[in-house]
Design brief:
This protein has 51 helices and 20 strands. Helix content is about 50%, strand content about 5%.
Length: about 1300
């Protein structure tokens, strides 16, 4: 027997209704107190809807296969049919977005509900209409067609809705009738399915109500659609009667009274085309043509409808970009010419500019008479028309300033308190903006530039969800409305567009969001004003991560307005396409310093909440000295709590616990007494005393860690608002991950709705389930907005959704989520409750773009401990495939290796593997083989660099992957700058993970912050402290000996990118560097480059370990600045060296005395075979010291003196080296900086008998090579390749 298609709580209907709503919509007549009738009806409805939808889906797929669905829907016939259904209001805007989404890859019949699927089967699957009434009535009994079966099923639907009771016998008859019609539609197993639904006894009351709610929604939709079909039929019938009545009036010889009577009938029938109806139809249109232009159209209206062919004028108007392609399609959707002309005129009236002038010109070729008459009237009224048209720039400026000042003067910053309103400037708290160098930037100075720099026309503000991007954009618009020069330059137009509210063009978006209502300018005119005043126009784009229409793409990428200033707000990793378009990038991190506590103060004051609830929370946030006002508030809250403390801690705890649910606890436990500590100390001594101290220390460290995490998350405005609500509701705060924070907040919102709003728990849970489904639907469709029915008003009470951004429309019913983070979490929650099959389908169809990253990460975090499911396996299989594809693409870009020694490692950037890293970061890898496959798909050389802040979860995931034994990563390149301080703890975790990995052999650090670099090196190089234990009771941190560190790096390079010289070194930084250097005992290559801080360079050279000399092969200080003290220490290290083969000092900044100090070590060093002194300014004394040292040294094989100026005397010293040192194989100089006599001296020395095997190479320099003999053919290859 087939399985019943269950309708569990996880698969709730997309729309729900509340039973008993008093309105004009249809309701079920069933007595809901009759439990037996409710159970019978829910079973029948369940069978009808589930099996009916399955049967319709089978019919639809047979006609439109899934792999060809996109092409079928795009075919002209089907598109024209569906377009007409949309014009007739039988397809809603949501239906149209489902059928034709922005991303063609997301087209799927899985997204079609029962009503839409039934409509598509009727009109696109060649189903025969039932006889004799078509889709408008019951079919004949003898009609066995599929269309008749569909109509009979709809008849059964209406019958079910009208039942007051339903006994078992009547239910069985309905089951049989439904099964019979399903068999006619091709459902061969309808009888078996019917028996399964009959015998199903597992349906509870909650599921029954859900099924009946879904059935009622479907029934209401069908009734509304039937009404629209009837209205369309009546309208069509009335249009067909008009010419018949007019013809009869002309042909029949009627008396005057009969004629007047018939004319009155015609007048009523043609009311839609009368002067009265035209005035009513155009009166509400505030934009477009002025009154004089409308009077001209009104005067010639009848003549235009009767004498002018629509196709003769529409083409001309489309060429002039007055009529769009969509408008043209709608004009010709009707067959009669008068209807086409009427629709055309209705489209022209809301447009302004030279619309009427172009329309009159379009009449000239084939309607000369009408053209002459209208042209004459138009010229006569032209002066009046021009006088009444508003001036573009001042008019747009006034409208925009009025819109912003009105909308944001009464703004709700706390949406879960619906009655709260305030001025945005009063509630706004300063946010922290950082440039790519990590320096703070003023939000209103992002377009500033210094003399000699280019004007940055496009600026990107990048930030994670919840950091306040949309709030900052609105605040900027509001401040501009009060002062045009707030940006430091006179922007006369500021256009704020929210891309989450989609529109086909930027013009339509501006009209809908800003210029609609009573604006007297048309779309084209506003666009022309922008184009004419590009340099003084600022376009702010919020929500760049959402879909872009073609016009917005042209603005951003094709540079159609090159002087226009654009400010783009976007999430991290969404601005890759804009990389070559913007001139400046700024990072929004959240609140500026100590602004979180200011936000809490404003929150408490605006929401009118008791201060004593927030005193503990504020004390944890405040780091610096408290303000006087804040201190007074905290003192007052403290005094109000003293009576409770006097009654005893147990009573206080009891009262607090009783006011909360059982599973809730206070925010954090405050340890104000030390009683337990004293007791333990008195009862035990020695080691027991030490253990108690250790426990106290661990508890204190844990408490400090929690407070630090709380402060960190509170810097994000969205999380800070979450904490305020949780604190107000006296709920605990779990700081494990962002997912747990959002989960607590959503639970708190539901609790607030139940306890304070007095809503039933059942209705709150049902509304929450509907909200989750809307979130999932919007993610799938790629659209942030959705239509909300009146009966679904409960969803607005959560405070998670808001009306779509529209400052002009009053009756807008489009909603969107207040924050994308909430939308993505609810979508992930819906994905989790929908079952593994639904999740697997989502992952299969998911595009590997950042738009879906957060949903997947939230889902993985929700399924944290239960991740061995088909859905997660499908997800990780797709991630694995994506990672391998990225690795293959990187491998193809690499140059072909001529030998195994020249082969390069596959390189990958951290942001290219963001999804896999973050998924691993939030999941407990129950299946090690799954983690192993992901780790093995990572590149061999990993680059941890990004133009911005690298997400914390990505770094955490990388740390977790590095700890796997099967990791393939061998080299790591990372940048440590001021932006890295925002995720400092994540970088420390990465350093700890690298310490234990035996596969990573090379680490390159590009740093601008020396403290951060020293801290990272100390963590990588030094071992973890041992357990603090001491017989004397003193806590000591013991570190392992250097040979026990577990340090596995072979190559370490530190490149200074700061360019700083004179800043001071902190004791902590020097101590970290000392510890790090002392543990570098296993390095083979150490490079510290481009550092101009002599004290830092000297400290590193001084603290290099003694055992360092046993393994080190290459030492590189190129580009550094070295003092004489450092050169003395370097001299000592070189003399002690037993394995050093290469010393690279290219472009070293050093004086002659310091150079002579360390170069003397070469007289005793017997291991160095390569010396690079390129770019160093050497005098003749230095060359003499060099020749004296190398005269004794008989091991040096390569000497590089590129870009080293040499006169004749210096060249003689170099020639002396060539003459004495028999082992020197390669000498490289640059002939452009060598004197002519010096080149002659070097040339002569190279041609002597002892040097006859050496050759001189012109061009970049003179090269001297000695051909290796058979004895030297197998000499050891130089480990470092110097270019």
């Amino acid at each position: 027997m087939p399985e019943v298609r269950r309708m569990t709580l996880a698969a709730r209907p997309k729309n729900q209704v509340v039973f008993g709503v008093v309105d004009n919509t249809p309701k079920l007549q069933l007595d809901m107190t009759d439990e037996r009738s409710v159970e019978n009806l829910s079973r029948v409805c369940h069978f009808l809807m589930r099996e009916g939808k399955a049967c319709l889906r089978s019919l639809f797929d047979s006609k439109h296969p899934t792999d060809e669905l996109t092409e079928h829907l795009a075919s002209p016939d089907i598109h024209r049919t569906l377009r007409r259904l949309k014009i007739k209001d039988m397809l809603t805007e949501d239906d149209w977005q489902t059928l034709y989404p922005k991303e063609k890859s997301s087209v799927s019949a899985d997204n079609y509900d029962l009503r839409l699927l039934l409509l598509l089967v009727k009109y696109t699957c060649d189903v025969t209409k039932p006889q004799p009434n078509g889709w408008m009535g019951d079919p004949e009994p003898r009609d066995d067609s599929q269309g008749a079966a569909l109509q009979r099923l709809l008849g059964i639907q209406r019958e079910l809705a009208s039942l007051q009771t339903l006994k078992a016998s009547a239910a069985n008859r309905l089951f049989s009738r439904i099964a019979e019609q399903l068999q006619r539609l091709g459902h061969s197993g309808a009888a078996d399915c019917m028996n399964a639904y009959k015998q199903d006894t597992s349906m509870d009351e909650t599921e029954s109500r859900f099924i009946l709610g879904e059935f009622l929604v479907w029934y209401r939709q069908e009734v509304s659609q039937l009404k629209r079909e009837i209205e369309n039929q009546e309208r069509k019938k009335k249009r067909e009667e008009i010419p018949i009545l007019q013809k009869r009036l002309k042909t029949r010889d009627l008396d005057t009274s009969e004629t007047k009577k018939r004319q009155s009938v015609v007048g009523k029938a043609t009311m839609d085309m009368s002067d009265k109806s035209r005035c009513q139809r155009w009166a509400h249109i505030k934009t477009g043509m002025v009154l004089a232009e409308r009077l001209i159209l009104d005067k010639y209206y009848e003549q235009l409808l009767n004498d002018v062919k629509a196709d003769t004028v529409v083409e001309h108007l489309m060429n002039k970009e007055i009529i769009t392609q969509d408008e043209s399609t709608e004009i010709f959707s009707t067959l009669r010419n008068n209807e086409q002309m009427s629709t055309l005129i209705d489209f022209l009236v809301p447009k302004s500019g030279n619309v009427l002038d172009e329309f009159v010109e379009s009449l000239k070729p084939k309607n000369e008479q009408v053209y002459q008459q209208m042209h004459q009237d138009y010229q006569a009224a032209k002066a009046d028309i021009l006088a009444n048209k508003p001036q573009g720039l001042p008019y747009c400026n006034n409208i925009l300033r009025e819109r912003y000042s009105t909308a944001y003067a009464k703004w709700n910053p706390i949406p879960w308190y619906t009655k709260v309103e305030t001025d945005i400037a009063e509630f706004y708290c300063q946010q922290q903006l950082l440039n790519l160098n990590g320096k703070s930037v003023n939000a209103f100075q992002v377009f500033d530039y210094k003399e000699g720099e280019k004007d940055p026309h496009t600026v990107v503000i990048e930030g994670d969800p919840g950091t306040g991007k949309s709030t900052l954009a609105k605040y900027m618009a509001y401040k501009w409305s009060l002062d045009e020069n707030v940006f430091g330059r006179p922007f006369q137009l500021l256009i704020l567009l929210d891309l989450k509210v989609t529109a086909p063009t930027v013009k339509v978006m501006m009209m809908e969001q800003l210029f609609g209502g009573d604006c007297k300018l048309a779309e084209r005119e506003i666009w022309e004003v922008m184009n004419m005043h590009q340099a003084s126009t600022l376009l702010i784009i919020d929500g760049y991560e959402d879909n872009l229409n073609d016009e917005m793409k042209s603005l951003l990428f094709e540079n159609i307005m090159p002087e226009l200033h654009i400010l783009v707000f976007s999430q991290t990793n969404f601005t890759v396409r804009l990389m070559h378009r913007y001139q400046r990038k700024v990072i929004l991190t959240g609140f500026a310093k100590s602004q979180a506590e200011e936000y809490v103060q404003k929150y408490v004051k605006l929401a009118k909440k008791p201060w004593e609830h927030f005193s503990s929370f504020l004390n944890k946030l405040v780091v610096a000295k408290k303000s006087t006002e804040l201190q007074k508030l905290l003192d007052a809250a403290k005094k109000s709590q003293e009576p409770q403390r006097r009654r005893g801690s147990s009573e206080s705890a009891t009262s607090v616990t009783s006011a909360k649910p059982r599973d809730e606890r206070p925010l954090e436990r405050e340890n104000t007494d030390k009683v337990s500590t004293k007791l333990s100390r008195s009862s035990s001594k020695g080691q027991g005393n030490d253990q108690q101290q250790q426990q106290d220390s661990n508890g204190e460290n844990s408490n400090q860690s929690k407070i630090a995490s709380l402060r960190h998350y509170s810097q994000v405005p969205l999380y800070c608002s979450f904490f305020c609500l949780l604190t107000d509701m006296r709920m605990s705060i779990d700081l494990n991950s962002p997912t747990t924070i959002v989960e607590q907040f959503v639970s708190c919102i539901k609790l607030k709705l139940i306890e304070r709003e007095k809503e039933s728990r059942f209705e709150a849970n049902r509304a929450y389930a509907m909200l989750s489904e809307r979130a999932m639907d919007t993610i799938k469709k790629g659209s942030a907005t959705f239509i909300l029915a009146k009966e679904d008003h409960m969803m607005t009470k959560f405070g998670l959704i808001q009306l779509a951004t529209n400052l002009t429309a009053e009756d807008n019913q489009r909603y969107m989520f207040g924050n994308r983070l909430i939308q993505e979490y609810l979508a992930a929650k819906n994905l989790d409750t929908s079952g593994t099959d639904e999740a697997s389908r989502f992952f299969q169809n998911m595009s590997m773009t950042p738009i879906s990253y957060n949903v997947v990460v939230f889902y993985c975090s929700i399924r944290k401990s239960d991740n061995d499911t088909p859905a997660t396996r499908e997800l990780f299989a797709k991630i694995l495939q994506y990672n391998k594809r990225r690795g293959k693409a990187s491998r193809m870009k690499m140059p072909a290796a001529t030998s195994p020694e020249d082969s390069q490692l596959v390189e990958g950037k951290i942001m290219d593997y963001q999804l896999s890293l973050e998924c691993v970061a939030v999941m407990d890898m129950a299946r090690r083989d799954l983690g192993k496959k992901i780790v093995e798909s990572l590149p061999e050389r990993f680059t941890v660099k990004h133009e911005g802040i690298i997400p914390r979860l990505s770094l955490t995931g990388l740390s977790k992957m590095i700890k796997f034994n099967h990791t393939t990563i061998q080299e790591v390149d990372l940048r440590l700058d001021l932006l890295a301080k925002e995720t400092l703890e994540a970088y420390k975790s990465l350093a700890t993970a690298m310490k234990t990995n035996v596969h990573i052999k090379t680490l390159r650090i590009y740093w601008t912050e020396k403290d951060l670099m020293a801290d990272f090196l100390q963590t990588v190089c030094c071992p973890e402290p041992e357990d603090p234990a001491n017989s004397t009771g003193q806590m000591e941190i013991r570190r392992k000996k250097p040979d026990q560190t577990g340090f596995h790096l072979k190559n370490l390079e530190c490149i200074d990118e700061s360019g700083k010289k004179l800043d001071q070194l902190s004791p902590k930084m020097l101590n970290n560097m000392r510890e790090a250097c002392s543990n570098m005992t296993k390095l083979e290559t150490f490079a510290f480059q481009n550092c101009h801080h002599m004290s830092l360079v000297g400290s590193i050279i001084k603290n290099l370990p003694t055992k360092f000399a046993d393994n080190l092969r290459i030492l590189d200080f190129s580009g550094c600045q070295m003092s004489i003290v450092a050169s003395q220490d370097l001299n000592g290290k070189l003399m002690e060296s037993k394995s050093l083969e290469g010393l690279i000092l290219a472009n070293l900044k050093i004086d002659a005395m310091a150079f002579n100090t360390f170069i003397a070590a070469f007289s005793s060093n017997r291991t160095i075979v390569l010396l690079d002194l390129s770019g160093i300014r050497l005098d003749n004394v230095c060359f003499f010291s060099l020749s004296e040292a190398l005269k004794i040294n008989n091991k040096l094989e390569k000497l590089f003196l590129r870009q080293v100026p040499m006169d004749t005397r210096a060249c003689k010293e170099v020639a002396r080296i060539l003459k004495i040192n028999k082992m020197l194989k390669l000498l490289t100089v640059t002939q452009e900086v060598v004197s002519e006599e010096g080149r002659r001296v070097l040339g002569e020395e190279s041609q002597t008998e002892t040097r006859k095997n050496r050759a001189v190479v012109d061009g970049i320099g003179v090269e001297y090579r000695q051909r290796p003999t058979n004895e030297r053919a197998n000499t050891k290859r130089n480990p470092l390749s110097v270019k």
